[in-house]
Specification:
heterodimer; A: about 280 residues; 4-stranded antiparallel sheet; B: about 300 residues; 9 helices
């Protein structure tokens, strides 16, 4: 267990449980917010969420809220349940107990229409060409910007007629990220977008993410590369032991005088000891 | 959305099986070209060689069509598993569509390709038979070969009808009966495809996922057993027939009316089993849709 922060959610500032308005948001913008965000100031409300794999508990009765309009770092050691949590939120896994609201809605068609999910592996069929991926997203996501996607593809040197099976892993990841970031979603769930790519590519990917998400959207990025991303986070959610170890704003964390990476190592280090 | 899902499902299935249809097309073209060759130019040896080549190409077409059925089944079911519950399922299940829409699109496409593969096989088998038959008979009787085939086919259908108690059926009644049997076959093919989809889906729900692929096989047989048992029980309790005459379709529960219809040359067909199959198919569809929406886990 974390020595400094205790076993529960790290929220030294009581106001953290009543998150402030999203970045740059005015009352009028709040009114104009999209359907998934209306009526709820939280992007996610998770209550008593438990998930296990064959008896091995990954998420143990966790509860947390994520304010909307934030860039959230979802941090934790391997196997702590980051990907599982994302899959649950994306509607890919149904086998869990607990109550989840995304923008005030239960997980379903309504939440999926406003949520852009990037898994940690390539989820397009191998036979797809770049143009097929673009057409597929255009078919099913009303918020997908086809022109933007085509411009992205050209900008990043992706041949529209190249098949996925002939692309390198890096190209596949880039293509998938471009598809997701071409959506004007209210929530982006990005599972290890920097995993498995070299440092130069990381900078490109990070730039794609940071310069293309919809204003006022919530961006959840799971990663173990804390150092590369910590300057981008507004909010941090750390998982370990199947529990929420830290759930707080970045300012609160920095007020401790430590970097996110230092706190990560401190908190997660304890989690690893137990795991 | 359903239209787009269906379009994608058809494309996805087609991608796995188009090779076999190309192969069948090439063999058919070769067979047609061989028809143009005058083998008699080379005497008895040529005729024998021509017959041998035609037999081999006909057999190749039949084998290709049979492989086509197997490949279609494999392609349809593996595509369903991969696109719904494999890594591609992370995309499919995160689409803003209902599970029933996903299932219906996959089902429609899968059933279409499976039925098509059966039809192609039947066409290839009968076509090959006629092809060889024509060759051998054309030497002896020329165009009379086709009228012989027609006579044989008519005689076969008449014998089938008589064995079922139907005497002197008209061509219209025979047409209706053949249509009913074709419809029955189509429904059962759809049920088969859906039962496999159900089994694959159940194998991705807790606690049924523990058995993996073996589980899917077991759930398929269990599902088949349950649906068949239900149909058998209901058929024992209630017998609904449809009587097909030249002018009308009539439903009846009376065995006497059926006997009378047969003697008059009408078709009488028990539809209880078919009716139960349709009901169970609807139930399986609803259960599978529920599982997709609420219970499944992508890998």
């Amino acid at each position: 267990m974390a020595k400094d922060f205790g076993s529960g959610t790290y929220s030294p500032d009581p106001l953290e449980n009543s998150p402030a308005a999203p970045r740059g948001e005015t009352p009028s913008e709040k009114t104009a917010a999209s359907a998934v965000s209306q009526g709820d100031k939280y992007a996610f409300k998770v209550r008593d969420l438990t998930k296990d794999y064959d008896g091995h508990v990954v998420l143990n009765n966790i509860s947390f809220d994520i304010p909307r309009g934030k860039i959230v770092g979802l941090l934790g050691p391997n196997g702590c349940g980051k990907s599982t949590l994302m899959k649950i939120l994306a509607g890919v896994i149904h086998d869990y107990t607990g109550n989840i609201k995304i923008g005030g809605r239960p997980i379903g068609i309504g939440s999926k229409a406003h949520l852009a999910y990037l898994p940690d592996r390539t989820y397009f069929p191998e036979r797809f060409r770049t143009v097929d991926c673009i057409n597929y997203f255009a078919d099913f996501f009303a918020d997908f910007d086809k022109v933007k996607a085509i411009e992205f593809a050209a900008k990043f040197g992706l041949d529209l007629n190249q098949r996925i099976k002939t692309m390198s892993k890096g190209m596949q990841e880039k293509l998938q990220l471009l598809m997701v970031m071409s959506r004007a979603a209210d929530i982006y769930l990005l599972d290890e977008p920097l995993g498995g790519v070299d440092p130069a590519a990381r900078a490109v990917i990070l730039d794609i993410i940071m310069s293309n998400y919809k204003e006022n959207a919530t961006v959840v990025i799971s990663t173990h590369l804390v150092n590369d991303l910590e300057h981008s986070f507004d909010h941090v959610l750390m998982l370990g032991h199947g529990s929420v170890l830290v759930n707080t704003g970045i300012d609160t964390l920095r007020s401790t005088g430590k970097s996110v990476e230092e706190i990560f190592k401190e908190v997660i280090g304890d989690a690893w000891e137990v795991d | 959305m359903l239209g787009k899902l269906t379009k994608n499902a058809f494309k996805s299935n087609a991608a796995g099986i188009y090779n076999i249809y190309i192969a069948e097309g090439i063999i058919t073209v070769i067979m047609l070209i061989l028809l143009l060759v005058d083998w008699t130019k080379w005497g008895d040896t040529g005729v024998g060689l021509g017959l041998a080549i035609k037999c081999i190409s006909s057999a190749a077409l039949c084998i290709a069509a049979a492989i086509g059925i197997v490949m279609t089944l494999v392609a349809v079911f593996s595509d369903f598993k991969r696109s719904m519950y494999g890594i591609e399922g992370h995309l499919t299940l995160s689409l803003p569509v209902r599970g029933s829409s996903l299932l219906f699109a996959k089902w429609l496409s899968g059933a279409f390709w499976v039925i098509l593969s059966y039809l192609v096989f039947c066409l290839a088998a009968s076509g090959s038979a006629m092809y060889i038959f024509r060759h051998s008979m054309s030497i002896v009787e020329g165009d009379a070969a086709y009228s012989s085939i027609y006579q044989i086919a008519t005689e076969m259908v008449k014998q089938l009808c008589e064995s079922a108690g139907i005497t002197t059926p008209s061509f219209k009644v025979i047409g209706y009966i053949v249509t009913m049997y074709a419809f029955d076959g189509g429904v059962r093919a759809c049920e088969f495809v859906l039962l496999v989809f159900f089994a694959i889906t159940l194998a991705h729900c807790r606690p049924f996922e523990k058995l993996g692929k073996l589980g899917a096989v077991l759930y398929f047989f269990a599902g088949t057993f349950i649906t068949q048992t239900f149909a058998s029980l209901v058929t024992k309790l209630v017998k609904i027939y449809i009587v097909v005459s030249d002018t009308a379709f009539t439903f009846t529960l009376s065995e006497n009316e059926v006997q009378a219809a047969w003697k008059m040359g009408f078709g009488a067909y028990s539809i209880t089993n078919l009716y139960c199959t349709v009901i169970m198919t609807v139930v399986v569809f609803l259960v599978t849709s529920f599982l997709i929406d609420r219970k499944v886990n992508a890998e």
